């Protein structure tokens, strides 16, 4: 969607990874997914060169929007281009799986169904040209904590996903109830969107951001004008790409 981070990758004459970011809340060490992706890439590449990476951060951190995971996937894709594509798509997928379960999804750059731990990807044949309002309360959610609360199930999703409308009409997030118990701001954000007139509302990922989906831009604009957010809360109007 049109809310995105920007990564700058430039060749360096000597081996090594120099990583900087515009976000003071993000570390630049080995616990950063961008650095981790670059490090893994270079362990598999025979080269005397290194890279300088700068991340301009716009996607809120720890909000369940996949910002860090998409940055890691983009790092792999970008480095592969920068070094004249030494690795195949399958090679990149294997690297992505080692970094995080949801990172393979972002290698596809299109709507897809993720299965298994997230490493099995089924790309969809259509785009999602909708408009979205995203509300981000000033909270951070530990993804690891959220997934530790949920019991695995073998229940299959029965709905056939053959057009964009099916996804919108079946919005549901199994993680939501666990997050709401610990972070009431998530329920508050959903209530704010509903009061403003939004119909299709869900928590994003493992939280704590919440989004609403609209078929038309004018409907999204109408709802956004009615939003009444507490101080330090953020909202974004974005388009699906």
Automatic annotation (TrEMBL):
Active-site annotation: 102
Q: Which Pfam families match?
A: GHMP_kinases_C (PF08544), GHMP_kinases_N (PF00288)
Enzyme class label: transferase
Q: Which residues form the GHMP kinase C-terminal domain?
A: 173-228
InterPro entries linked: GHMP_kinase_C_dom, GHMP_kinase_C_sf, GHMP_kinase_N_dom, IspE, Ribosomal_Su5_D2-typ_SF, Ribsml_uS5_D2-typ_fold_subgr
Q: Which UniProt keywords apply?
A: ATP-binding, Isoprene biosynthesis, Kinase, Nucleotide-binding, Transferase
Q: In which pathway does it act?
A: Isoprenoid biosynthesis; isopentenyl diphosphate biosynthesis via DXP pathway; isopentenyl diphosphate from 1-deoxy-D-xylulose 5-phosphate: step 3/6
Write down the superkingdom of origin.
Bacteria
Sequence positions that bind ATP: 60-70
EC numbers for this chain: 2.7.1.148
Catalytically driven reaction(s): 4-CDP-2-C-methyl-D-erythritol + ATP = 4-CDP-2-C-methyl-D-erythritol 2-phosphate + ADP + H(+)
Any one GO molecular function term: ATP binding
Q: Where does the GHMP kinase N-terminal domain start and stop, copy by copy?
A: 32-109
- Summary of the function given for this chain in its UniProt record: Catalyzes the phosphorylation of the position 2 hydroxy group of 4-diphosphocytidyl-2C-methyl-D-erythritol.
Q: State the family it belongs to.
A: Belongs to the GHMP kinase family. IspE subfamily.
Listed HAMAP family: IspE
Q: What is this protein called?
A: 4-diphosphocytidyl-2-C-methyl-D-erythritol kinase
Origin organism is Desulfofervidus auxilii
Q: What is the lineage of its organism?
A: Bacteria, Pseudomonadati, Thermodesulfobacteriota, Candidatus Desulfofervidia, Candidatus Desulfofervidales
Q: Could you tell me the gene encoding this protein?
A: ispE
């Amino acid at each position: 969607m049109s809310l995105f981070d920007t990564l700058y990758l430039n060749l360096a004459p000597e081996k090594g990874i120099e990583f900087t970011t515009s976000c003071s809340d993000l570390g630049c060490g080995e616990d950063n997914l961008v650095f981790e992706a670059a490090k893994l890439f270079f362990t598999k590449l025979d080269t005397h060169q290194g890279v300088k990476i700068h991340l301009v951060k716009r996607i809120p951190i720890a909000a369940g929007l996949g910002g860090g995971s998409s940055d890691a996937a983009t790092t792999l894709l970008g480095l592969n281009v920068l070094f004249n594509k030494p690795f195949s798509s399958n090679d990149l997928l294997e690297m992505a799986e080692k970094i995080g379960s949801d990172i393979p999804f972002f290698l596809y750059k299109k709507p897809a169904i993720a299965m298994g731990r997230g490493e099995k990807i089924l790309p969809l044949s259509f785009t999602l040209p909708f408009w979205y309002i995203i509300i981000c309360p000033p909270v951070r959610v530990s993804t690891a904590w959220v997934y530790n609360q949920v019991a695995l199930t073998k229940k299959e999703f029965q709905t056939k996903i053959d057009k964009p409308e099916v996804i919108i009409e079946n919005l549901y997030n199994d993680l939501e109830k666990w997050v709401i118990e610990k972070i009431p701001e998530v329920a508050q954000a959903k209530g704010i969107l509903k009061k403003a007139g939004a119909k299709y509302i869900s928590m994003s990922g493992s939280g704590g951001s919440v989004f609403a989906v609209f078929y038309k831009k004018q409907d999204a604009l109408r709802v956004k004008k009615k939003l009444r957010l507490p101080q330090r809360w953020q909202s974004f109007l974005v388009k699906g790409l």
